[in-house]
Amino acid sequence: MDTTTPSRHHFLDWLRIIAFGLLVPYHVGMYYVTWDWHVKSAAASSTIEPLMLITAPWRMGLLFLISGAATQFMLGRAGRFVRPRSRRLLWPLLFGMLVVVPPQSYYEVVTKLAYGGSYADFLPLYLRGYHGFCRGTDCLSLPTWNHLWFLPYLWAYTMLGWALWKLWPDGREKFERLIGDGRTLLLLAVPLMAARLTLTLFPSTHNLTADWYNHLQYFYLFLLGLLGARSGLWVLMQRWRWQALGFAVLAWALLLAYFKHYASQDPSTAMLYGQRLLWGAFEWSAIVAACGHARQCLDFDNAARRWLTPAIFCLYVFHQTVIVLLTRALLPLGLPPVAEGPLLIALTFAICLALYALLRRVPVLREFVGIAPPRQAAGPSPISAATLTVAGLPQARAAQVQVGGSDRPCTRELRG
Fold first, then answer.
1. Average pLDDT taken over every residue of the chain
2. Are 22 and 35 in contact (CB under 8 A)?
3. Beta-bridge partner residues of 383
4. What radius of gyration do the chain's Cα atoms show?
5. Are 321 and 99 in contact (CB under 8 A)?
6. What is the dihedral of CA 29, 31, 36, 41, to 10 degrees?
7. Cβ 114 vs Cβ 131: under 8 Å
8. pTM across the whole model
9. Given this model, what pLDDT does residue 111 score?
10. Burial 121-137 (b: 16+ CB within 10 A, else e)
């Protein structure tokens, strides 16, 4: 056996699987909370909002961090990059906007604006960009990418990252020299905290050309993954994982107290900005805890990882539309949320993974939903463990030392 064969960062694959998987219970939860979403349950209340807040600040940021790391691994390969990466991200975006997303918008105007036309009547309006579905000055923009906003953002960041890689070839080495002790992790939280302070000027829009708050946080995390993928950053996160988890739990509890007692009472400027700083710190500490514990516990391979790594992207493409359609299908049953919610989660996972098992066998459709051929399955490329260092120590030694877009944690669509 060739002992020089590089090892794979399997924990990044598992993190990606978990982060995408969390979108299913989160978006099912959006059906039952008071925050705005495409369709709403008649039983919507604030009951599970504290649970939603556990992942709202950090789950998408974690995906951009992992995507940045995966991009560095891909840039390290010989061969083309821009065209295959664009095809992998933009084909699913186009297919999603034309085929997957329209049912979400249809049921949104049916439930919020009492639209009486059929889906066949609605689809031509959607495709030609009809902007007449309004409540006052709040109009639904069509066509839309809804939950697929991650794809154009990631494509733009990937192209910028590729250009940076070409223009600044020694950037990775310079970043690696900055990795030190736990103070490094504290400093890396500052940009996220500062970004959150800009929310008054730059509210979250998920409009690629006018979403500066999200670009500040997500492009930063993408660059962090891009520059730090082969550095000692992961080892540092592993070392401080428990401290980060403890702070994240504390920050979550404090944010709950803020939203319960202060958010609806016109808080003072100091209180408002304190909450935003805490949000940014919570985002980073949760990401550090997730990465650190994943490297500690999930850096292994098995058949489930190999199957789920390409499957999870297909689940991401379809999951929100499947959820919306299932909520309509289950309405006649009149199930209570405590029974209906878990059923929606289970059925969404089952249907999306079944779609993957079917579509991966059809080459053209496989391309449309971003399923790579088996020999090119998605995920970070292998890298040598020997390249990992922390504070100048070899990885083997270093491993011996063991850390949303508005003031409410939700994304606004057509306000209900």
1. 87
2. no
3. 7
4. 22
5. no
6. -140
7. no
8. 0.88
9. 95
10. ebbebbeeeeeebeeee
SS3 content of the chain, % helix, strand, coil (to 5): 70, 0, 30
Assess contact for 378 and 179: CB atoms under 8 A.
no
What tens digit of pLDDT does each residue of 18-51 get? 999 999 999 999 999 999 999 999 999 999 999 9
Q: Label residue 74 exposed, middle or buried (CB < 10 Å: 0-12, 13-18, 19+).
A: middle
Distance separating alpha carbons of residues 161 and 218, to the nearest angstrom: 13
Domain segments of the chain as ranges: 10-130+142-398
> Looking at the predicted structure, is the pLDDT value of residue 303 above 60?
yes
- 297 pLDDT band (50/70/90 cuts)? very high
- The CA distances from residue 365 to 75, 94, 148, in Å, are 26, 12, 17
Give the DSSP letter string of 37-81. -SS--TT--STTHHHHHHHTTTHHHHHHHHHHHHHHHHHTSSS--
pLDDT digits (tens, 9 = 90+) for 353-364: 999 999 999 988
Find the DSSP H helices in 168-297. 171-178, 182-197, 212-228, 233-239, 241-261, 269-297
Cross-strand partners of 135: 138
Q: What distance in Å separates the CA atoms of residue 381 and residue 363, rounded to the nearest whole number? A: 23
**DSSP state, residue 129:** T
Residue 138's φ and ψ, nearest 5 degrees, are -95, 105
Q: At 120, list the tokens.
A: 């066949």
